[in-house]
Design brief:
about 110 residues, elongated
């Protein structure tokens, strides 16, 4: 389940990065069409791309390396992974773990 969930979350984050880049390009080329100033469009595009990149780095550098390790670090990494995946729980490709009823935010 963990491997499937990592792949799923990574794919969603990569999609978000691609969408942020695309949207930034579209709005950046024609900001007046969207009723925004060029500087604001550029700033928002940079923010959206940076946020999407940060989620990918968070997953790769602070969650994945600790998954499956013993102790609090491993438990925290698994919880963080489930928190990162939580917004996508209704996504058609979400890899539901039928053997586990625990979801982020619910009692353990």
């Amino acid at each position: 389940m963990t491997t499937d969930l990592v792949a799923f979350v990574r794919a969603r984050f990569e999609e978000e990065l691609e969408k942020a880049r695309y949207a930034g390009d579209v709005v950046g080329r024609q900001p007046e069409r969207f009723g925004v100033e060029p500087e604001d469009a550029a700033k928002h595009a940079r923010f959206s791309v940076a946020a999407a990149e940060a989620r990918l780095v968070l997953l790769a550098d602070t969650v994945v390396p600790y998954l499956g390790t013993a102790g609090p670090g491993g438990r925290n990494a698994e919880f963080q992974l489930r928190l990162l995946a939580a917004p996508y729980v209704e996504h058609r490709d979400y890899p539901h773990d039928e053997g586990s009823a625990h979801q982020p935010g619910s009692p353990a």
